[in-house]
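Key result, reporting period 2: structure in, sequence out.
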């Protein structure tokens, strides 16, 4: 196996009864890459992500995540990844420090590591004065940045981000992406879904799923050239329109 590959999928498929949610998708993600996983609601993104996170077993195909098999090593996968969803995942009735202590314990960090990393994190995020506040008292943007920081608290090889910037303002979204860039520079692989096409421009490469299949995969620059488009919005629109015409 190529040691530079963080995620490798070969003809991965997920079938529910007569419905094929993920249809023979294949791709590779390099270590440290920011990989955008795009598609409309119902395209199969979340179903695919659940398989790569070790939460759902594929119907067929092969895949490895952080070098571990998605069929045989689901628990090893979970230990080597971070995850953040659009549905805010921290405990709102705990303080910032209590959340860090709780998740640090889940991730298997020692008390000393948790204390050191917590102090470093609240300083980095400028939350020294708020560290003993309940998470419920923080603005949404701060909650999202804190949730991302917790997702990589244990320094995982890969972090999966499912619509991480939903509902926050453009300035906060840009700040959030600064955190993503920093994590990538530190060697963490970023696998991110988003419906904001301008955010696709921030990725090293993007795949676009339509009806369970990957219909396009390349750098944003190359995709815009291929589809003679000025933006990723136009690329996405052309693919969606083409799929609709095929269905009709």
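The corresponding designed sequence is given below.
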């Amino acid at each position: 196996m190529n040691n530079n590959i963080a995620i490798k999928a070969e003809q991965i498929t997920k079938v529910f009864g007569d419905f094929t949610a993920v249809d023979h998708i294949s791709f590779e993600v390099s270590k440290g890459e920011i990989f955008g996983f795009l598609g409309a609601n119902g395209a199969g993104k979340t179903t695919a992500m659940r398989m790569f996170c070790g939460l759902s077993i594929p119907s067929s195909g092969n895949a490895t995540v952080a070098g571990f098999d998605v069929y045989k090593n689901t628990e090893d996968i979970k230990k080597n990844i971070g995850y953040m969803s659009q549905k805010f995942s921290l405990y709102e009735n705990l303080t910032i420090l209590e959340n860090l202590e709780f998740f640090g314990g889940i991730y298997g960090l020692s008390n000393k590591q948790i204390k050191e990393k917590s102090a470093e994190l609240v300083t980095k995020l400028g939350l020294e004065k708020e560290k003993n506040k309940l998470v419920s008292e923080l603005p949404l943007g701060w909650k999202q940045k804190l949730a991302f920081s917790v997702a990589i608290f244990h320094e995982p090889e890969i972090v999966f981000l499912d619509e991480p910037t939903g509902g926050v303002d453009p300035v906060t979204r840009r700040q959030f992406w600064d955190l993503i860039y920093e994590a990538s520079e530190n060697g963490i692989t970023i696998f991110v879904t988003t419906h904001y096409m301008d955010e696709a421009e921030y990725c090293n490469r993007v795949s676009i799923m339509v009806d369970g299949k990957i219909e396009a995969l390349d750098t944003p620059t190359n995709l815009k050239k291929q589809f003679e488009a000025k933006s990723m919005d136009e690329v996405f629109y052309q693919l969606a329109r083409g799929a609709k015409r095929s269905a009709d």
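The CA atoms of residues 45 and 148 lie 20 Å apart. The chain has a mean pLDDT of 91. This case is discussed further under Risks and Mitigation.
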